[in-house]
Design brief:
Nucleotidyltransferase, domain 5; 5 strands; 5-stranded mixed β-sheet; hydrolase
Length: about 270
């Protein structure tokens, strides 16, 4: 392509349609154009392509466990992660995600390391490419009846059970799920070490955030849209002022309830 015939604006518009992996060919052609503005663009594209290469290397490292398990003959590997063990209100949510072997979703990572906006984008991409996704939700009443650890394990069981395709291996973030009769491996900080677990962490996080945003419409006084049920100063103050709802985990609120006998249940 003879870029010399195009304006800088036209070139930039064209580049937006070019996949990152094709940047070297575009850069090679642009280097023939001696305009200073175009040469500045070349430097920008070279920088972007370098970042892209570094991201591919990071993703390759995140496939380490998946590759080792595939070498052992397993094929359907589900990554499992949970969100919501710490909040004072709302459910604990787990996700089980089976990704294709050739999955290269850029910037997939531990959901805690990603901005809400990027999480939403990655959520949609994961939903598009995943072989299967299962969600497990355990509410506050069940958490109080069991305990948060066992409730989390139950949510993981539900997530796996909700998969349409039965996985033959599970990669789980920092948990042992012996009650699930499938070969598995627990990985400490797995959401930053395994692409499957990272995908599950994003699906679980966005799912739970959306649930809490819907509950905010029912109970706006707790600002669930902001705190997602976590014990922020504003949330704790609202509990003392308005009482607790059916969404609140009573077993997590013993100290607050003890210090305020006027707290009521809605």
């Amino acid at each position: 392509m003879e870029f010399e015939k195009f304006t800088l604006l036209q070139i930039k518009k064209y580049i937006k349609s070019v996949p990152l992996e094709q940047y070297p060919q575009v850069i090679e052609e642009l280097e023939k154009d001696q305009r200073k503005s175009v040469q500045k663009l070349v430097i920008t594209l070279q920088r972007k392509f370098k970042i892209y290469q570094e991201e591919l290397k990071r993703l390759d490292k995140m496939k380490y466990y998946e590759k080792k398990i595939i070498e052992r003959g397993y094929r359907l590997i589900a990554g499992i992660d949970e969100v919501g063990r710490g909040p004072l209100a709302g459910p604990v949510v787990s996700a089980a995600v089976i990704l294709p072997e050739d999955c290269n979703i850029l910037y997939i990572n531990d959901s805690k390391k990603i901005s809400p906006h990027k999480r939403e984008i990655l959520y949609d991409k994961i939903k598009q490419v995943a072989i299967d996704i299962g969600i497990g939700i355990v509410d506050a009443q069940r958490i109080d009846k069991l305990n948060i650890y066992d409730a989390t394990k139950e949510s993981m069981y539900i997530a796996v059970n909700n998969l349409n395709k039965k996985p033959d291996f599970l990669l789980i973030d920092a948990m042992q799920c012996d009650h699930i009769p499938i070969s598995q491996k627990s990985i400490i900080k797995g959401d930053s070490k395994s692409i499957s677990i990272a995908a599950a962490s994003i699906i679980a996080k966005v799912t739970r955030d959306r649930i809490m945003e819907e509950y905010h419409k029912i109970f706006p006084q707790y600002a669930f849209d902001k705190n997602k049920g976590y014990g922020t100063e504003e949330h704790c103050r609202a509990i003392k002022n308005f009482g607790i709802s059916f969404l609140h985990r009573k077993s997590f609120l013993k100290n607050i309830l003890k210090t305020n006998n006027n707290v009521k249940v809605e």
